[in-house]
Every structure is written in structure tokens, then in C-alpha cells.
Recover the amino acids of this structure.
């Protein structure tokens, strides 16, 4: 009948039932353990996230921040919770090797960086360096990413969300920026002659929550130091874009180039003058060394003559002995030998010297 299990009668039946029971218990314990571990991990991440929220609100209450700002902070944390961003990207990847972290960042963000107009066609190595310097920023609804007249210190790439370009009072919308849009790239190139003077030319505001990649001017120029060809190409692309949009003063740019050329010419002249002074100084040092050498030789001769006079006075004072002591030889460094023609020695020169006539 269904539901009725016969009791084991033989020894092998007992062994089979025992093995089946032990195997079932082990499988059940393994499944239960994995489930509990997964729940604990999720709970631990949520606990850390809640501790971060509690610390933030304790700080806001201690500083007496207004309710409006507190609500914005609360909305931000709720957005992070909905997006399941309980752990920061850097915290999650800091335990990885540097090479593996770089490969992962390239796979995730390289396509995004290629959307930037000034980076199209540059060396792949530069893009790899810039990918590692991208920073993710989140903007709340109604928050301004930049305002007209601000100094441009970074470019932005829209990863997720939507932005709008608005008038100064925010009442009129000129354009909308979606995923993959890029803005602020010209202001970080330091191109001379820009009419706006490296300042923002528009107000950009977030409609909802928006995730943007940020690349600072400092990180860009730090990477361009290693790629001079790419730097020249990027500056030329930026200049062409400015000329196309009529955002550059060509006369001011020409004056800047002329002043820069004058500076280079002056620098070359100063360098040549310094080299000439160094050459003259080297000659003076050599001449001084020669004069010092001659003075030392004269001093040695004078000292030797003084010693001879002292010995003579001592000899006379001693009653003029029969044999006068021999004077010490003068130690004088020999002068360098005169140059002779190759193949001729002093002996050959003596052989060729004229001999006087014996009769005369």
C-alpha cells in the first residue's frame, strides 16, 4: 500500500537504509548551511550600510543641519539602497591585484570613455590610464552639476540618468543630456584664446538621480605628460571644436603663440650665454691652475737656495772643514718634452746636425 514502508529484514537492507539516512542528513545540512551563510552575508552588508546611515544622521543632528538637507541625505541613501550599492566600488576591488583591477575597469568603462570627442583616435595606452582615474559621482534630483561662470576643473560623462541644460534662473530648458553624453571637456584643456576663459558656459541640472563619471583636469594632464603626441592631437581636436563653434578668439591665440615664441627665443639666447660663460670660466680655471703650478716651482727653488745659504753659513761657522758637504739636488718637476715629428728621435736629429770643418 502507498505510504507503508516495509521494515528491513536482512543485514544489507539495514546497511542501505542507514547509508540513505546519513546521505540525506548531510545534503540537508549542506543546503541549510549555504542558505544561512548567504543570508548572513546579505544581512552583514545591510548592517554596515545601516551603520553608515546612522553615523551620517548623527552627524547631521549634532551639527544642527536643516530638515531639508536631512531629507536630501535620506533620499540619497534610499536611492543607494534601491540600486543595491551597499558597497563602494573601490572597497570591493581594493583586494584585487592591480593588473586584474585595471583589466576589470577597462572592460567596464573603456567604451564609455571612447564617447568623448577629444579622445577619439588617441593611443590606447592613454585611454587605459584615464579609465583608472574615472570617479563615479551621484547627483540628486534638482541638483546642479555645474553653473555658468564656474571654473572648469573636470569633464563629465553621463553613465545613467538624465540632465538638462537650463537658463540662469532655471525656467527655460535648452537641451537634455542622456546616457553617454559628455560635457566640460573643452574647459580642462587650457587652450589659449577661449572666449569663456576656461569657465563653464551653461547651467547643467539633474532631472532625477544621475550617475556621472568624473575626470579631473589634474588627472588628465598628469596622464598626458607620458603621451606628448596624444597631447598635441587632443589640443588640436579641441581647437577645431572651438573654431567650429566660434568660441575662440583667433587674434588672442596668435598673440599668445607669438609671445610664446619670443619666450623660447629668449630662453635659447640665455642658454647660449650661460654656455659661453661656463666655457670662459673653464679657461680661467685652467689658467689659474697653470699659474699656481709655476708659483709652486719658484717657491721650491727659493726654498732650496735658502737651504744652501744656511748650509754655507754653518760650514763657515764650523771652521771651514776640508770637504764641503754636497748640496742637495733641487727637485723640480721636468717640463713636458717638446713635440717632435713622428718617426724622428733625438739620436737621429744629432746624426743629421752639421759638423764643423776640422781644418777651420
Amino acid at each position: 500500500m502507498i505510504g507503508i514502508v516495509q521494515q528491513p529484514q536482512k543485514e544489507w537492507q539495514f546497511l542501505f537504509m542507514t547509508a540513505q539516512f546519513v546521505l540525506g542528513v548531510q545534503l540537508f545540512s549542506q543546503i541549510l548551511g549555504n542558505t544561512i551563510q548567504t543570508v548572513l552575508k546579505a544581512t552583514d552588508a545591510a548592517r554596515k550600510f545601516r551603520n553608515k546611515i546612522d553615523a551620517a544622521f548623527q552627524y547631521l543632528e549634532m551639527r544642527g543641519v536643516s530638515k531639508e538637507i536631512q531629507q536630501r541625505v535620506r533620499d540619497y541613501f534610499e536611492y543607494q539602497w534601491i540600486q543595491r550599492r551597499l558597497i563602494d566600488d573601490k572597497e570591493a576591488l581594493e583586494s584585487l591585484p592591480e593588473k586584474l583591477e585595471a583589466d576589470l575597469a577597462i572592460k567596464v568603462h573603456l567604451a564609455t570613455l571612447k564617447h568623448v570627442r577629444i579622445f577619439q583616435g588617441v593611443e590606447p595606452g592613454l585611454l587605459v590610464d584615464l579609465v583608472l582615474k574615472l570617479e563615479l559621482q551621484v547627483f540628486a534630483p534638482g541638483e546642479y552639476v555645474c553653473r555658468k561662470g564656474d571654473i572648469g576643473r573636470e569633464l563629465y560623462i553621463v553613465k545613467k540618468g538624465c540632465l538638462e541644460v537650463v537658463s540662469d534662473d532655471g525656467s527655460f530648458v535648452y537641451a537634455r543630456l542622456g546616457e553617454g553624453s559628455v560635457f566640460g571637456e573643452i574647459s580642462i584643456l587650457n587652450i589659449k584664446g577661449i572666449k569663456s576663459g576656461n569657465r563653464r558656459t551653461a547651467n547643467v541640472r539633474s532631472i532625477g538621480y544621475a550617475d556621472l563619471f568624473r575626470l579631473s583636469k589634474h588627472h588628465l594632464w598628469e596622464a598626458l605628460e607620458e603621451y606628448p603626441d596624444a597631447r598635441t592631437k587632443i589640443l588640436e581636436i579641441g581647437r577645431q571644436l572651438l573654431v567650429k563653434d566660434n568660441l575662440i578668439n583667433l587674434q588672442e591665440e596668435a598673440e599668445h603663440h607669438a609671445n610664446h615664441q619670443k619666450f623660447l627665443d629668449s630662453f635659447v639666447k640665455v642658454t647660449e650665454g650661460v654656455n659661453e660663460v661656463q666655457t670662459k670660466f673653464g679657461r680661467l680655471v685652467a689658467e689659474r691652475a697653470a699659474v699656481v703650478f709655476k708659483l709652486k716651482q719658484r717657491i721650491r727653488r727659493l726654498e732650496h737656495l735658502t737651504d744652501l745659504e744656511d748650509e754655507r753659513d754653518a760650514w763657515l761657522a764650523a771652521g771651514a772643514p776640508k770637504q764641503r758637504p754636497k748640496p742637495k739636488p733641487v727637485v723640480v718637476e721636468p717640463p713636458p718634452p717638446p713635440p717632435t715629428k713622428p718617426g724622428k728621435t733625438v739620436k737621429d736629429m744629432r746624426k743629421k746636425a752639421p759638423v764643423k770643418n776640422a781644418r777651420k
About this structure: The first helix runs from residue 11 to 63. The two ends are 163 Å apart (CA to CA). Strands lie at 135-139, 144-146, 154-160, 163-166, 173-177, 182-183, 203-206, 210-216. The first strand starts at residue 135 and ends at 139.
